[in-house]
Amino acid sequence: MFNGKKCSGLTLAELITCIVVIGVLISAFYSGSSLYSRAKLNAVIEDFHRYDFAVSTFRQKYDYYPGDMPEATQVWREKTSNGDGNSKIGYNTINEPESYLAFQHLSLAGYIDGRFSGSGTRGTKIGVNTPKSPYRNLTTYWFYTDNLWGNYPESIGMFFSGIESEGYSDHRIKAVDAYFIDKKIDDYRPYTGKLITFSTKDGECVTSNKNFTNKIDNLDDVKYKFDDEDDRCSVFYSLKRNTFDN
């Protein structure tokens, strides 16, 4: 293995060679790291497409969204629970949270891999009631029907974000990584199109000077904050064919 200490006591030509070799090794390290990061982001994009197709196929066969299906126990018996059949994938319902039931219904129907509990009264448990994301530890997906605090028409979609140790939602996506995904599959704008990137705190993740929990004007003017290297973003990917625009 190359050892930088061996560069001491060398001629000028040999020292230059050592410096070049060190530069090549550093460049190779960062190039490999960048390729690895992009591979993980591409895997997230593949997950979006996979779940989008699975939800669409499920609805065509059963006439309901996964998680919302009111006759699920007639098909899979005691292995699952029923949704309320209101054409939404809800989080707070009288039965099990439909956000978690959705993964179980898709799995039982054979449209996705994995086994899921379908329950989540104490929050998200990755690998138990939601799938693990390839992005990094403590990141996952869950289904939800939302209008994102009144900023858009109500739509069924997937959240891609993280969880805290208590099992509740937390922002764990870097702005530059959210932009990479957005540029690949949508319009590279955080507040328009099929994929919405947001944070619930002012000035984080994107350039809006408003908290996303408030109504936001001029959605087209909002940009990603590439100078923010912290994990401050969450992503909502619409599974309906409509897009989120003014």
Describe the overall structure.
The structure is a single chain. The protein is of the alpha+beta class. It has one domain. It contains four helices and six strands, in the order αααββββαββ. The longest helix has 51 residues, at 12-62. The termini are far apart. The model has no long low-confidence stretch (mean pLDDT 83).
User: Which stretches are poorly predicted, pLDDT < 50 over at least 5 residues?
Assistant: none
**How many helices in DSSP terms?**
4
What is the helix content? 25-40%
Task: Please state the average pLDDT score.
Answer: 83
What's a concise summary of this model?
The chain is built from four helices and six strands, in the order αααββββαββ. It is of the alpha+beta class and 246 residues long. Strands 1, 2, 3, 4, 5 and 6 form a six-stranded antiparallel beta sheet that branches.
